[in-house]
Design goal:
47% of the residues lie in helices and 13% in strands. The protein has 447 residues and is an alpha/beta fold. It folds into two domains: 223 residues, 3-Layer(aba) Sandwich (Rossmann fold), CATH 3.40.50; 176 residues, 3-Layer(aba) Sandwich (Rossmann fold). The strands form two sheets. It has a five-stranded mixed sheet with strand order 1-10-9-7-8, with helices on both faces. A five-stranded parallel sheet has the order 3-2-4-5-6, sandwiched between helices. It is globular, with a radius of gyration of 23 Å. The structure holds 5-phosphoarabinonic acid (PA5).
Length: 447
């Protein structure tokens, strides 16, 4: 396939092709259990056929809502955290101009994010920016009770109501949440906000192809149809009918598993493109929250090259040999620039004069890959030919499918996240939340 390619040939100094392929039967079995919904966490497998199942009606209603909001406001604040944030965030970072802030606003509203932290300065600065501006809010929470987005929503909803009045504010707020449960659902019903439902069977980190990701993407003016089409293509390329050797998600999952069993416990997702930094954040959540259980799992880390070659490059080359690298390589762009030649050549760059900057970047990538492999770091390469909606759809579904297979190969449930409750209990105890009296008493003794 011209726009997507997986290359595992640079792992063979460490793990042979036979070793990877020894997991083929198991990987195919786990793939089938994802589709047949027979594995652990089977209540959360709605994402598996989401790209092919999403209806024209649903797409149209997302597009309609996005257009209506876009016509009324200059800014839209998307409020959410974790899986209710990272999908839209990575997509918009990947697709937007690097200097969007300094450019004149175009046809579509600027999408801003809130509720992904508890940083007072951030919300103060955001609130100041929105003062007197035309803005709308998309508030996203599956549980409808998460503290960070609830705090941001309370503040920004108040601000919006003060700026435009309660009645008009209602027209500018959209809620994306559970169909029935949670405080946000209740609030949306009482206030009469337009709302979208997060399907019960799509967990947060697997929800980018639901309104959670699609509405913010459509609001910013990108084609959700192309995004879905890319995911749909990958759905067909990774279906149980496809053989192991033809299925990139199964091969990636089996390769990671083979490396893990050989002591490669950390996977570094590397990119050579600043627009993909947040793709790594989304990927880290997907793999970290899915696999890190029962004292098992590859630790997902990330680097942004070439910048991080001047920092983390040292460790990757010569530090402890418990890492492997997965590189996302973008081979093309429509924006071109060549390095000029210079008659004096005082900076000694004439040897690369007239080359495109991307050519120099690709040589940095190739040189780094060879050096890291020589240094004992297995290398997996995932190539896309452009950063566009379709290819981001391919990547999203590829990583989701591989993550499901990987989790099952590890024999854990990749679709729950029991570990994220521990910090919340402590935070609620420290904040003396009603219902946490016993925990408050206990925690105070520890301080
Ligand atoms: O993947 C997950 O399930 C989590 O990261 C959630 O998305 C995150 O905790 C936010 O939850 P909610 O959407 O319920 O506010």
């Amino acid at each position: 396939m011209k726009n997507f390619r997986l290359d595992i040939s640079k792992i063979h100094n460490f793990v042979s092709k036979e070793e990877v392929f020894s997991f083929s039967e198991e990987a195919q079995k786990q793939l089938s259990s994802l589709h047949n919904k027979t594995g652990e966490g089977s209540d959360f497998l709605g994402w598996v056929d989401l790209p092919s199942q999403i209806s024209e009606n649903e797409i149209q209603s997302i597009e309609k809502c996005a257009n209506e909001l876009a016509n009324k406001v200059d800014f839209v604040v998307v409020i959410g955290i974790g899986g209710s944030y990272l999908g839209a965030k990575f997509f918009l970072e990947a697709m937007s101009s690097s200097f969007e802030w300094l450019e004149n606003k175009g046809k579509y509203p600027r999408v801003l994010f809130a509720g992904q932290n508890l940083v007072e300065e951030y919300i103060v600065e955001l609130s100041a920016l929105l003062k007197g501006k035309k803005f709308g809010i998309v508030v996203i929470s599956k549980s409808g009770t998460t503290t960070e987005p609830a705090v941001a929503f309370r503040i920004l909803k108040n601000q919006l109501e003060e700026q435009v009045g309660k009645d008009q504010a209602k027209e500018l707020i959209i809620a994306i949440t559970d169909a029935k449960k949670g405080a946000l659902r209740k609030l949306a019903n009482i206030e009469g906000y337009q709302s979208f439902v997060i399907p019960d069977d799509a967990g947060g980190r697997y929800s980018v192809l639901t309104p959670v990701g699609l509405l913010p993407i459509a609001i910013a003016g990108y084609s959700i149809r192309e995004f879905i089409n890319g995911a749909k293509k990958m759905e067909s390329l990774t279906s149980p009918e496809v053989s192991f050797e033809e299925n990139p998600a199964a091969i990636y999952a089996a390769t990671r598993h083979a490396l893990y069993l050989k002591g490669k416990k950390i996977e570094i997702l590397a990119n050579y493109h600043d627009k993909l930094v947040y793709l790594s954040e989304w990927w880290k959540q997907l793999y970290g929250e899915s696999e890190g259980k029962e004292n098992k799992g590859i630790f997902p880390a990330s680097v942004y090259f070439t910048a991080d070659l001047h920092s983390m490059g040292q460790y990757i080359q010569e530090g402890e040999r418990h890492i492997f690298e997965t590189v996302i390589s973008v081979t093309g762009s429509d924006k071109t620039m060549k390095i000029p030649s210079d008659i004096d050549n005082l900076d000694q760059l004439n040897y690369i004069a007239n080359k495109r900057i991307s050519e120099v970047n690709s040589k940095a990538e190739l040189g780094t890959m060879l050096a890291h492999v020589d240094g004992g770091v297995p290398n997996i390469r995932i190539e896309i030919d452009r950063i566009n909606e379709y290819n981001l759809g391919l990547l999203v579904y590829f990583f989701e499918k591989a993550c499901g297979i990987s989790g099952y190969l590890l024999n854990i449930n990749p679709f729950n996240q029991p570990g994220v409750e521990a910090y919340k209990t402590n935070m609620f105890a420290l904040l003396e939340k009603p219902g946490f009296e016993k925990e408050t008493e206990e925690i105070k003794k520890r301080l």
